[in-house]
Amino acid sequence: MSETVERHEFGAEVGRLLDLVVHALYSDREIFLRELVANAADAIDRRRFEALTDPALTMPADGSIRIVPDKAARTITLSDPGIGMTKAELAQNLGTIARSGTRAFTQSLAGAKPEDRPSLIGQFGVGFYSAFMVADRVEVTSRRAGSDEAWTWSSEGAGSYTLAPAERAEPGTTIVLHVKPDAEEFLEPIRLQTIIRKWADHITVPITVAVDGKDEPANEGTALWRKPKSEISEESYTEFYRHLGHVFDQPWATLHWRAEGALDYTALLFIPGMKPFQAVEGERESRVRLHVRRMFITDEANLLPPWLRFVVGVVDTEDLPLNVSREMLQSTPVLARIRRAVTGRVLTELKNRAKDASDYAKFWANFGPVLKEGMWEDAEHRKDLAPLLRFRSSAVPEEKDGGWTSLPDYVSRMKDGQEAIWYLAGDDAEALAASPQLEGFRARGIEVLLLTDQVDAFWPERFEEFEGKKLRSITQGAADLSKFAPEVAEGDEPADLAKLLPALTEALKGEVAEVRATDRLVDSAVVLAASAGGPDLQMQRLLRRAGRGGFGLGLPVLELNPRHPLVRALAARADAGEDLAETAGTLLDLARVQDGDTPRDPVGFARRVAAALARG
Question: What is the first-listed, main subcellular location in coarse terms (predicted)?
């Protein structure tokens, strides 16, 4: 070995630490390029900053990060015209694991004003060592700006490194990676370009990748969200939205703001104008992209709750604490505050846009069912979400606001003395609107909300009241309508069911909890109700479809209309002592069919109906 080459031991138990970096710290090998580019961008920003007070350090106007893959030599060369490093800095920054030159530099600026500080990325001093995931030897040649001396740091990632004098025409740093046999994919220019577009597309430093001897731009170089809103056109917003979401529609809403103070971040978010096509229901996690100083970190930070997962965009923060891998975010109070702030801003936008009923109806048609999920799973935001919900209603025609109404509007229309917000859940709005369940309510002018999304079977039980009014399913328990006089004539006097009710109850023993008279029917003879305290009928249907029919459902209640001719005739037969066992089963099946359910025994039901028609 030449006498000018110095061999040094790493300043830590590097064998164990490098093994951790290479095999455990990062989940994806391509991260090495993001880390090296981040370091190069920091070096360029540091030189620009120091040149403000020392013109001799001024960087060339065309300064860029240049990446050159060489398949024949099996190397990747990355060079930058940044601040560079002296021999001592090479030993300190690269010879000591977890010592970060960027961190040390940032600490030296502790007294500087925020607007005077450069925006640097590196923090933990281990990103550089990710190069050993793809290289079995790494050489770093660097010349400090303002110095004529260059040095080369070299290591195979074992227990030592060497330092030797070198030549470099201009200040800056050149890194040569000698690529491992199993990492040949990274010698392809297109692979490197793809990685840059994914992780570093928006950093301001130009990045080029050599393709067939020609340097080609690899990053866009502009972070749209960092620009003032006054400088961004609607066309630019739309273009960025389409690029981000891989869609072709116009955004329904664009949210762009900068937060400074206790939290320092910039956000550019979009609410899509169309529901995305999904052949199969996708993941429920939010995919808003997290950037740190323009460098993409992850889209798995869950910056918005699952019930806002339709929102796309970018959140770029200056001071988010990250763990050493920068892929797995710490559960820090800072990140939690950013999440709360971003969620609150989206909710505020929805509240403002909801004032235009026809415009909001477009959003609701696309994403209403997703937003309702928050009513079930997010106690913190349940009260904020409630006024944003929209429903079909028995009292709102299609031509008015698209047929949608809100809880505040419902409450404003409630009858004097009405204590509950009534709803009926099912699979289809048209079928619900024609349901016998509504007859008594409609006859008394009481509005009923029609809920048709699957989540509607769940969330009302966790949202007990709105503006002091209870939410109640009209199928759950006995609906007391006696205090409200019918607005239409009720027809014949009710029949005496004193013998009919116990006869049917005995005939349907084990299939219904009770048979009782009801005043909530007008045109129909029978209807089903859920027993008080149990799940409503729609929830029971969903549980049965899921194979959980015995999961504490209890037995339904069969309600009879004492004014209906059929019930009057049956009451007379019961008074005469006739056996009504088969008729009781037919009544129960009839009630099930009316509610969109199937008869207990479809073949038997068809046989009994056919026989009745023949007798008729």
Answer: cytoplasm
Q: Is 282 annotated as a binding residue?
A: no
Is 282 inside a domain boundary?
yes
Q: Is 382 marked within a binding site?
A: no
Same domain, yes or no, for 45 and 169?
yes
Are the C-beta atoms of residues 313 and 288 closer than 8 Å to each other?
Answer: yes
441 is annotated as contributing to ligand binding: no
CB 355 within 8 A of CB 368: no
| Residue 416 clears pLDDT 50, i.e. is over it | yes
Same domain membership, residue 483 and residue 567: no
Specify whether the CB–CB gap between 376 and 459 falls below 8 A: yes
CATH number of the CATH domain containing 340: 3.30.230.80
Which is nearest to 462 in space by CA: 388, 551, 378, 543?
378
The pLDDT-based confidence of 17 (bands split at 50, 70, 90) is: low
Q: How much is the pLDDT for 123?
A: 45
Q: Find out whether 319 and 342 touch, Cβ atoms under 8 Å.
A: no
What would the two tokens of residue 241 be?
A: 């939205």
In a domain, 369, yes or no: no
616 in the same domain as 533: yes
The answer to whether the beta carbons of residues 343 and 288 sit under 8 Å apart is no
Query: Binding site annotation covers 221?
Result: no
What is the C-alpha to C-alpha distance for residues 499 and 497, in angstroms, rounded to an integer?
6
Please check if 219 is assigned to a binding site.
no
126 is in an annotated binding site: yes
Q: Is 484 known to sit in a ligand binding site?
A: no
Neighbouring CB atoms inside 10 A of 545's CB total 9
For the whole model, what pTM was predicted? 0.78
Residue 529, helix vs strand vs coil = strand
CA distances from 222 to 4, 200, 557 (A): 44, 10, 66
The answer to whether 39 is annotated as binding is yes
Confidence of residue 254 (pLDDT cuts 50, 70, 90): very high
Give the residue, 532 or 192, on which the prediction is more confident: 192
Instruction: Check if the beta carbon of residue 437 is closer than 8 Å to that of residue 475.
Output: yes
417 labelled binding-site residue = no
- Phi first, then psi: give them for residue 529, nearest 5 degrees: -140, 155
Residue 93 marked as a ligand binder: yes
Task: State the CATH number of the domain containing residue 592.
Answer: 1.20.120.790
Q: Where is the domain boundary, 465, 488, 511? A: 488
Angle between helices 101-108 and 87-94 (to 10 degrees): 110
328 is in an annotated binding site: no
The edge-to-edge listing of strands for the beta sheet with 295-298 is 253-259, 265-271, 312-317, 289-292, 295-298
Number of domains in the chain: 4
- The boundaries of the domain holding residue 324 are 224-353
95 belongs to an annotated ligand binding site: no
Reported as a single tens digit per residue, the pLDDT across 461-478 is 888 889 999 999 888 766
> At CB < 8 A and 24+ separation, what contacts does 17-21 make?
17/97, 17/98, 17/126, 17/129, 18/97, 18/129, 18/132, 18/157, 18/158, 21/126, 21/129, 21/130, 21/132, 21/133
603 Cβ contact list (under 8 Å, min separation 6): none
Please state, in angstroms and rounded to a whole number, the distance separating the CA atoms of residues 85 and 43: 9
pLDDT 10s digits, 315-332: 998 876 444 344 456 567
In a shared domain, residues 55 and 147: yes
CA nearest neighbour of 34 among 243, 219, 209, 198:
198
Please check if 604 is assigned to a binding site: no
Tell me whether residue 368 is in a domain.
Answer: no
